[in-house]
C-alpha cells in the first residue's frame, strides 16, 4: 500500500467525492455560493483527509488529474442543482487550485475547456489560489492570473495572512476576494490582536477594491462581529461543514 498507488486508483475509478461548504453573504445571511472540497473515502481504509492526500498528489503529479476532476465535478454539480431547481441558480462555486496546477502554462485553456464542456458560465466559477503561487514568480503569476480573469472567472486569495504577502504585488494582481485565514477568525474574540489584524485586512481589501471572505466562523458572535466590521462573505462550521452535493442543495434551497 502506498498512498500514491491508491490515490491513482481512486481517481481512475472515480472514487473521490466533492463536498461543498456554503459561502454566506454577511449583509443578509443568504447563501451566495460554495467552496468545493475533495474527499476520499477508501473502501478499505475509510476516510482519508485532503490534508494527507493533497500534498502527496502535488508531489507525484496526480494533482493535475485531481484538479481537473474537481473543476469538472463542480460544474456538473451546478448543472444538477439548476436542473433540480428548474432555473439557473445565482450561485458561485469556488474550487481550490494548487501551486502545481497554477505552474502549468495551459491552466487558462484547461479551465476554459472544462467550462465549455459543461456549458458553465465563467461568472459562476471562482478559483482559489494561495500566496505561494505568487511568491515563486510574481511576474508570471500576474500574467497567468490576468489570463484566467480574462475568461471571466473570479479569483480568490486563499488563507490570506499566513503566507508571505508582498503588498506591492497584491495591488497589481487581479484578485477579486481575499479569504482571511481561519487562524485569525476562529478565536478572534478571545484575542484583541486578532481583531486588529482582521480589521486591517478588511480595510486593506476595501482600499484595493477587493471583497473579503472570513473562513472558520464557528460562532454566532463571531459572525455578527464580522458582519458589523463589513466583511463581505462568511464560511465556517457555524453555518455548515463541507457536505455532499445533495445536502448542500437542501441547505441552500431554504436560504436564498
Ligand atoms: O476540508 P478540508 O479538510 O477539506 O481541506 C483541507 C485542505 O485540502 C485545504 O487546504 C483545502 O484547500 C485542500 N483541498 C481540498 N480539496 C482540494 C482540491 O480539490 N484541490 C486542492 N488543490 N486542494 C484541496
Ligand atoms: O485551506 P482551505 O481554506 O481551502 O480549506 C478549508 C479547510 O477549512 C477545510 O479543511 C475545511 O474543512 C476547513 N474548515 C471549514 N470551516 C471550518 C471551521 O469553521 N473551523 C475549522 N477549524 N475548519 C474549517
Ligand atoms: Mn480554500
Ligand atoms: Na483557506
TrEMBL record:
Residues 1-256 form the EAL domain. Signal peptide: none annotated. Transmembrane segments: none annotated. This is GGDEF-domain containing protein. The lineage of its organism: Bacteria, Pseudomonadati, Pseudomonadota, Alphaproteobacteria, Sphingomonadales.
